[in-house]
Fold this protein.
Amino acid sequence: MKKTLFALAAAAVAFTGFSAPAVAEGERFVLVSHAPDSDSWWNTIKNGLALAGEQVGVEVEYRNPPTGDIADMARIIEQTAASNPDGIITTLADPDVLSGPIQNAVAKGIPVIIINSGTPEQAAEVGALMYVGQPEYDAGLAAGQRAKRDGVGSFLCVNHVVSNPVVGERCRGFADGLGVDLGDSMIDSGQDPAEIKNKVKAYLSANPDVDAILTLGPTSADPTIGALQDIGKAGEIYFGTFDLGTEIVKGIKDGTIQWGIDQQPFLQAYLPVIVLANYQRFGVLPGNNINSGPGFITKDALAKVEEFAGEYR
């Protein structure tokens, strides 16, 4: 993994300010995500995409369904393929809906890299070059095993993207890591902050013996912090979260959150642009998929994260 990242980073530096004879003019790569406009976590993805495009001298675009509707995302992939880009970078949030449009793009000869959502196996099934991301179930399992070692036996999983079945694998992995049934421990919180806060408070009121809370990103973590503050349990209940953001970093720093799982979204956008540029120009391709996470961020390792949270971390 380290050798792969070093090689890709070196390639990026080599491209900066240099045009080899093999470089084609007007290269364009498009990243299509499933994220709604309201999800600020994806700003780091956008920053990674923009920086890589600048460094290797290609045009990059970010496209997404404004409300997070997966059917709308499928149409965006179809429209993107019809515009004949030199490469597509996309999430595989729902294989049942998205596999067809992705396979059609591959059939047209457009190189595709799957990031973030989906699995390496699913990426191979749709004909993608590779997968760059965090295997969600494995990350949840590692988190559950860590929590079990810390004495956790029951939990609430606050899922703000139930429409994305891949993200729900985080909750299932966490339950398996604890050695318990998921059952009704996962709630559909929706994405409205006030609604999330109220649902968390209601669940904890009805289940006062819950040991821990797991949130799946800033959209659910931020209101959950507020809910715990409202009921006087901030710092008292075991709290882990996926992904990072400004409020999550503050929560880790003040002890409200024990750890955040960093899947390094910057790399999920940055590396595919580097890979596609190398592939288009020189026909070279890494031999393996790239796991960008999971990495556990605790209070002891916050310096760089705090400096770049919401921008590159």
